[in-house]
Design brief:
The chain is an alpha+beta fold and 614 residues long. It has 3 domains: 189 residues, Cathepsin D, subunit A, domain 1; 209 residues, Beta Barrel (Cathepsin D, subunit A, domain 1); 111 residues, no CATH class. 17% of the residues lie in helices and 29% in strands. The chain contains 8 helices and 39 strands. Strands 2, 3, 4, 5, 7, 8 and 11 form a 7-stranded mixed sheet that branches.
Length: 614
């Protein structure tokens, strides 16, 4: 026998022996304590967050890799090869990526052939418009906690080689570098065909932990928290932290909840919204420009945005200082405007109202409030040349048989739990930075109810960093000022407004300089694309905006940053046929105040709904 074969056989025997010694299969144990899945506290991830992230030990010897909790049916690990190819476009800095190790090598013959990432899992691939390749593999997962270790063997997962997230304009994309930790429990295992034609059946993640006796039920309790401001993530399998559940839970018998209204509100103080002196704005749940009674949506931690009807996003945005960017299919904050600072620093919120329990004839309503402080997210490289603040409502047109999604942006303020054994899903209000003390509860296999925190605080009692605004008597346009006693109350522009204007000018100069440097570095291999894009920008039509009195005037096209220097491809009008991957077909309505945007490559619409780049 060749020496290489002997060495391989010896290695296999050693690995099998190690795996056998490490694995302790105790069987189902309904008296187990909930398992605390670790959230990383030293780094955040995402070119569109930042986001908190869970960390999981995979392979043997185990490797610590980041994953988003997900309702995908399979756990997804990102191969290190995904970011090593010359065509890769991974966000930086790179997190730890999976290197094929001993446990996977042992069972590599069971791997599937690569297949298209667009078919991997509809709860992720469809909202993210995924392309690239993925394949199914067998691997080990090691559960770590202060009380010990748990080992999930005979465990199936998928490995991404180059799965890519795409935006409406194909020039904008990035290579996935964070995996998906499956919390699906609708079935205990799944099958695929290996490269040699064998039929392979291995276990799913959450049911595997239950049948191994590590958790008391096929359930989880999740609050992803937020990176800015800092609210640590909380994930328990087989239980939940009741301090993250402030309200009576909304109950569903499947993975969907019924959304019946979207509104804007202010918990205390004056309104920061120029169009609403009271700060209370209702009836924003719309489709095709008309208010509707309800839509179904999936709370989905595996995707980043609030994927809602285009008319709903437009209706919300009409009351905010934001500008729609058709390249990204998202709205960007006009950070130089005073109302932007007041909205994200005051106790103002976006309110989502749901049917509390669709099986209850009384059809009580329950609301979850998302402070605008959590909806001030940051887009970074490789999607944009320099950091830009954006509002994460994404106009979305679900495929037939699919649904809308309330992703991580929404779930920063919401608690999500599920017991797969009783087919119950719970959704409730989660706290802010002033989080109550941890209080972990077990979810039994037969539980069809979930108890919120006892004597829970009001939401904004956990958001003491947000300060109510008071009306400025000297300003007839309903401008507001902080209650900070050091704030200026003089007539005309306040010191803060002047400083904000100066900062806006400086930020604009710095942003333009950053864009110029970004374009210069890419010019050698993108010269033809740059020429086409420059020709488009030189010939574009001026944008139109409205001043405070409602008069229409021509906007300064130079006030906004142009999109990054990439290959030019003509865009279709939003009202007509959209390019492949476009998320919403209906036309955008004029939104917010467009002047003074600090965004990049932004676009507005004139009174007839025609888009113009600013």
């Amino acid at each position: 026998m060749p020496h290489s074969t002997l060495r391989t056989s010896s290695l296999s025997i050693v690995l099998l022996s190690a795996l056998a010694r490490a694995s302790v299969w105790t069987g189902i144990n309904t008296n187990s304590d909930p398992w605390n899945v670790e959230y990383n506290t030293s780094f955040t991830v995402g070119p569109d967050g930042p986001w908190n992230v869970a960390v999981i030990h995979v392979d043997y010897a185990d490797q610590l890799v980041p994953m988003f909790p997900s309702l995908a049916e399979k756990t997804l690990v990102i191969s290190a090869a995904a970011c090593q190819a010359q065509t890769a476009n991974c966000p930086l800095p790179l997190p730890a990526l999976w290197q094929k190790g001993g446990a996977q090598s042992l069972f590599a013959w069971q791997n599937s052939n690569p297949y298209n990432g667009s078919t991997w899992d509809s709860t992720v691939s469809e909202p993210l418009n995924v392309t690239g390749q993925v394949h199914d593999i067998g691997n080990r997962v090691t559960l770590q906690s202060p009380s010990g270790q748990g080992f999930l063997d005979l465990h199936g997962m998928s490995a991404s080689e180059n799965m890519t997230v795409n935006y409406p304009d194909s020039r904008f994309s990035y290579t996935m570098d964070v995996g998906q930790l499956s919390m699906y429990g609708g079935s205990s295992n799944w099958s695929w065909t290996s490269t040699n034609g064998s039929s392979i059946t291995w276990n799913r993640t959450l049911p595997d932990a239950y049948t191994a006796g590590y958790i008391p039920s096929v359930s989880y309790g999740l609050h992803i928290g937020s990176a800015e401001p800092n609210v640590s993530g909380s994930l328990y399998w087989g239980g939940y932290d009741s301090s993250r559940c402030l309200s009576s839970p909304i109950v569903s018998n499947n993975q969907l909840v019924e959304l019946v209204d979207v509104s804007i509100g202010v918990d205390s103080g004056a309104s920061p919204f120029p169009n609403s002196p009271t700060g209370q704005i209702h009836g924003l749940l719309q489709v095709n420009g008309a208010q509707i009674n309800n839509v179904s949506a999936m709370p989905n931690p595996g995707v980043p945005y609030m994927y809602l009807p285009g008319s709903t996003c437009d209706a919300i945005a009409a009351h905010l200082p934001v500008t729609f960017n058709p390249f990204m299919g998202l709205y960007f904050w006009n950070t130089s405007q005073q109302s932007y600072r007041e909205i994200v620093k005051s106790p103002s919120y976006l309110n989502f109202t749901f049917v509390r329990n669709a099986s209850d004839p009384s059809f009580y309503r329950e609301s979850i409030r998302v402070p605008f402080a959590l909806l001030n997210l940051t887009m970074q490289q490789p999607l944009v040349p320099s950091a830009a603040s954006y509002f994460p409502c994404k106009p979305y047109n679900p495929a037939d048989g699919s649904t809308y999604h309330l992703g991580r942006a929404f779930l920063q303020a919401a608690f999500l739990a599920q017991n797969w054994q009783t087919s119950k899903l719970w959704l409730a209000q989660a706290p802010g930075p002033d989080t109550p003390l941890v209080n972990v509860k077990r979810v039994a296999a037969t539980d069809d109810f979930l108890t919120p925190m006892t004597n829970a605080p009001q939401l904004f009692d956990t958001w003491t960093m947000l300060k109510p605004l008071r009306s400025s008597v000297s300003n007839p346009t309903n401008s507001t000022t902080p209650t900070d006693p050091s704030a200026s109350t003089s007539t005309g522009l306040s010191a803060g407004a002047k400083a904000g204007t100066a900062v806006g000018v400086v930020a604009g100069v710095v942003a333009l300089a950053a864009l110029a440097l970004f374009a210069l570095r890419r010019r050698k291999h993108r010269r033809r694309a740059a020429t086409a894009l420059r020709a488009e920008l030189d010939g574009q039509t001026a944008a139109y905006e409205k001043d405070d009195a409602g008069a229409t005037y021509e906007a300064d096209a130079g006030a906004a940053m142009a999109p990054r220097d990439v290959k030019h491809a003509p865009l279709s009008e939003m009202g007509g046929p959209a390019p492949a991957g476009a998320a919403e077909m209906e036309a955008r309505a004029p939104v917010g105040e467009l002047q003074g945007s600090d965004g990049f490559g932004l676009a507005g619409r004139d009174g007839d709904g025609v888009r113009h780049e600013l």
